[in-house]
Design goal:
The chain folds into two domains: 44 residues; 116 residues, Glucose Permease (Domain IIA) (Distorted Sandwich), CATH 2.70.70.10. The chain is rod-shaped and about 100 Å long. Strands 1, 4, 5, 6, 7, 8, 9, 10, 11 and 12 form a ten-stranded antiparallel beta sheet that branches. A two-stranded antiparallel ribbon has the order 2-3. The protein is 21% helix and 34% strand.
């Protein structure tokens, strides 16, 4: 018969259990870190910023069009701001359209992945062309009054799977940051 020292055997087992506990803690920490990185990446690609400083001059929904004079769906929000105010990307992504876009005037569209894209219209100038990769908060254009417009502003749209949706649920703040300059004309 073999003589077994149960105390040594139990000490060895307890040591292995301690090693396993440490591995479990390390694995849990790793999973939490990966989850935080995923959440940060998702937030980075979610249009949650206002595109510029200014005043909300027209919301999303049915309205009397300021140029045409009849009821029409307004597919974004308008933020009036002084001419040349920087417009920033509300989320990271890739530019998929940049240039003249009919009644929108000079416009830029950014694809954020997961079916989300944003459009910024009536710009005085555009900072990037198609294919450029954009960081959240990066200046991509400047406020203007190009296309069918009544004054300097940015028309901002959020598109989900190609359809315009109300941007309000995406925005972290209920109102755009206030402009430091006064301006009398309201964009529309």
């Amino acid at each position: 018969r073999m003589k077994v020292d149960y105390r040594k055997l139990m000490a060895a087992v307890e040591g292995r259990e301690s090693d396993l506990d440490q591995l479990r803690v390390a694995a849990l920490d790793y999973r939490k870190r990966v989850q935080r990185q995923r959440e940060a990446a998702a937030l980075n690609a979610t249009p949650s910023l206002w595109p510029c400083r200014g005043s909300l001059s027209s919301g999303f929904g049915w309205r009397i069009h300021p140029v045409y004079g009849y009821g029409r769906m307004h597919t974004g929000v308008d933020i009036s701001a002084p001419f040349g105010t920087p417009i920033v990307a509300t989320a990271a992504g890739r530019v998929i359209q940049s240039g003249w876009l009919s009644g929108y005037g000079y416009a830029i569209t950014v694809d954020h992945g997961n079916g989300l894209s944003t459009l910024y219209a009536h710009c005085s100038s555009l900072a990037y062309g198609v294919g450029a990769f954009i960081r959240k908060g990066q200046t991509i254009a400047y406020v203007g009054s190009t296309g069918i417009s009544t004054g300097p502003h940015v028309h901002y749209e959020v598109l989900a799977n190609g359809s315009q949706v109300n941007p309000a649920p995406y925005l972290l703040q209920k109102e755009p940051p206030v402009s430091v300059a006064n301006h009398s004309r309201q964009g529309g």
